[in-house]
C-alpha cells in the first residue's frame, strides 16, 4: 500500500465542483488582487473564530511579521517564545533585530512551559509568542495573565492550530481584552485549513491593531498612495481566498473526522507492545481540542531516561533508532515526517544568540524522539489499519 502523508488530492476531488467554479468566478472578475473573495474570507474567518477582526495575508510567516510590526517590536527588544517550533516563529523576531528568548517546553503538551516564562522576563521583554504546536492550543489564560502582570503583548502562533479549541474558545482568538493580543495562522496547503499556495491570517479584537495590520499588509497605505507606515506587500490574492471560502464550509466536518481518526490512532497504537520501545501518544489536556495539524508520536525507550539534559550521544542514539523505524515504514509505503529534528536554539541561523546543547533539555529530548504519521480528513480506515499494524510489527524488531 502507498499512502499519502496528507491526501490533498482526495480533498480537491471531494470539493472540485465548488472550487473550480469559485476559481472561475475570480478569473472572470479579473479582480485578482483585493477582489471580493478576500473580504468575504475575512468575514468568514472572523465569524469562525468568534473574533471581531481577521485579515487575510500572504503566509503564516508574514502574519507573524505583520503582528510584530503592529506591536512596534524593534531592534533591542526581547520576545519570548519556544525553541520547539518551525523556524518562522523565531525568525521573524530576529528579522526585526529583536532577540528571540527561548523558554523550554512542557514534556507532555510540547507547548511553552508557562511555569518557566517569568524568569526569562527582563526590562527589554515586549511580547510573548506561544506556539500552539501540532494543533493543540498553548495554555493561553496563564500566558495572558503573565503578560498582563508585566505589560507584555501576546501573539498566539496558531499556524498549526486553526480549528483547535481551548476551554471552548477557538484558537487564533485566545487573546485577552486587557493586553494587546493577536492570533496568527497559516494556510499552507498541509495545514488543517490550507489553500493552494501560501496564505495566512491575523486575528484580533482590537480595532487599532487590526487597522494597522490592514495598512501594513499593503505597504503601510492608509488611503490610496498615502503611506503612514513602512509595511510590505503581504496581501493574500483573490484566488487563494476563493479556495479557502469553499474549504471553510467543510472545515467543521473535517475537524470532526480528524478527531475520529486521532481517536482511532490512539486506540490502535496504545495496544502495541514491544520489548524495548514504546510509543508516547499525543496528550490532550481536559477542555482542550487539538486540530491535529500533525498526529505526532514519540519513539521512546522503555528503560528510564538518564537525567536531563541528555548527552549528545543519547540524543543521537534515540534519533538514529527513530530514523531506522521511519526508513522501515517508508519501505512499506508509509511516509512520515519529523516536526522538528533540530530545536531552534541549535539552528545555525540563530547561533549568534549564543545558546548551546543542553540549554533546553526537554525540547532536545522530544526532538530526538518525535515523528508524525500520515494524517488528514481523507485518510481512510484501511490505510490507517495498515499503518497501525505495520508500525506494530516494525516496533517489535527494534
Ligand atoms: C508554528 C508555525 N509558525 C509559522 C509558520 C509559517 O507559516 P507559513 O509557512 O505559512 O509561512 C508555520 C508553518 O509551517 C508553523 O508551523
Q: Can you describe this structure?
A:
The chain is globular and about 65 Å long. The protein has a seven-stranded mixed β-sheet, with helices on both faces. The chain contains eleven helices and 15 strands. It is of the alpha/beta class and 398 residues long. Helices cover 38% and strands 15% of the residues. The mean pLDDT is 97. Bound molecules: pyridoxal-5'-phosphate. Residues 59-61, 85-86, 88-89, 131, 157, 159-160, 186, 188, 198, 200 line the site of pyridoxal-5'-phosphate (PLP).
Task: For the structure shown, list the relevant keywords.
7-stranded mixed β-sheet, binds pyridoxal-5'-phosphate, 15% strand, 38% helix, 398 residues, 11 helices, alpha/beta
Layout of SSEs?
Elements: H1 8-29, H2 36-49, E1 53-57, H3 60-70, E2 78-81, H4 88-95, E3 99-102, E4 125-129, H5 140-149, E5 153-157, E6 165-166, E7 169-170, E8 181-186, E9 200-204, H6 207-216, E10 221-223, E11 226-227, H7 238-249, H8 251-269, E12 277-280, E13 288-289, E14 295-301, H9 312-331, H10 361-369, E15 370-373, H11 381-396
The site of pyridoxal-5'-phosphate has 15 residues, from α3 and α4.
Amino acid at each position: 500500500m502507498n499512502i499519502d502523508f496528507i491526501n490533498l488530492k482526495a480533498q480537491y476531488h471531494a470539493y472540485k465542483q465548488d472550487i473550480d467554479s469559485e476559481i472561475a468566478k475570480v478569473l472572470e472578475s479579473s479582480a485578482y488582487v483585493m477582489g471580493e473573495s478576500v473580504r468575504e474570507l475575512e468575514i468568514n474567518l472572523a465569524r469562525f473564530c468568534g473574533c471581531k477582526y481577521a485579515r487575510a495575508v500572504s503566509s503564516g510567516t508574514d502574519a507573524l511579521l505583520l503582528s510584530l510590526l503592529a506591536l512596534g517590536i524593534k531592534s533591542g527588544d526581547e520576545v519570548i517564545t519556544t525553541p520547539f517550533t518551525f523556524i518562522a516563529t523565531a525568525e521573524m523576531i530576529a528579522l526585526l533585530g529583536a532577540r528571540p528568548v527561548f523558554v523550554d517546553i512542557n514534556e507532555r503538551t510540547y507547548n511553552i512551559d508557562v511555569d518557566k516564562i517569568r524568569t526569562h522576563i527582563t526590562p527589554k521583554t515586549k511580547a510573548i509568542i506561544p506556539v500552539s504546536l501540532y494543533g493543540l492550543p498553548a495554555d493561553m489564560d496563564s500566558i495572558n495573565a503573565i503578560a498582563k502582570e508585566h505589560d507584555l503583548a501576546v501573539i498566539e502562533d496558531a499556524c498549526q492550530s486553526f480549528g483547535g479549541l481551548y476551554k471552548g474558545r477557538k484558537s487564533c482568538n485566545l487573546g485577552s481584552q486587557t493586553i494587546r493580543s493577536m492570533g496568527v495562522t497559516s494556510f499552507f496547503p498541509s495545514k488543517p485549513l490550507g489553500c493552494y499556495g501560501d496564505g495566512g491570517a491575523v486575528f484580533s479584537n482590537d480595532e487599532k491593531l487590526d487597522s494597522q495590520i490592514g495598512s501594513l499588509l499593503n505597504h503601510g497605505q492608509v488611503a490610496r498612495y498615502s503611506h503612514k507606515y513602512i509595511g510590505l506587500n503581504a496581501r493574500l490574492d483573490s484566488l487563494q481566498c476563493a479556495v479557502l471560502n469553499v474549504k471553510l464550509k467543510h472545515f467543521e466536518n473535517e475537524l470532526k473526522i480528524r478527531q475520529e481518526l486521532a481517536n482511532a490512532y490512539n486506540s490502535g497504537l496504545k495496544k502495541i507492545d514491544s520489548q524495548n520501545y514504546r510509543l508516547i501518544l499525543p496528550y490532550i489536556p481536559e477542555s482542550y481540542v487539538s486540530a491535529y495539524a500533525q498526529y505526532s508520536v514519540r519513539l521512546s525507550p522503555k528503560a528510564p531516561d538518564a537525567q536531563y539534559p541528555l548527552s549528545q550521544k543519547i540524543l543521537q542514539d534515540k534519533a538514529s533508532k527513530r530514523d531506522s523505524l521511519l526508513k522501515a515504514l517508508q519501505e512499506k509505503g508509509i511516509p512520515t515526517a519529523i516536526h522538528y529534528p533540530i530545536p531552534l536554539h541549535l539552528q545555525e541561523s540563530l547561533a549568534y544568540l549564543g545558546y548551546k546543547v543542553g540549554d533546553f533539555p526537554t525540547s532536545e529530548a522530544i526532538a530526538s524522539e518525535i515523528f508524525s504519521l500520515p494524517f488528514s480528513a481523507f485518510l481512510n480506515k484501511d490505510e490507517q489499519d495498515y499503518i497501525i499494524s505495520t508500525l506494530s510489527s516494525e516496533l517489535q524488531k527494534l
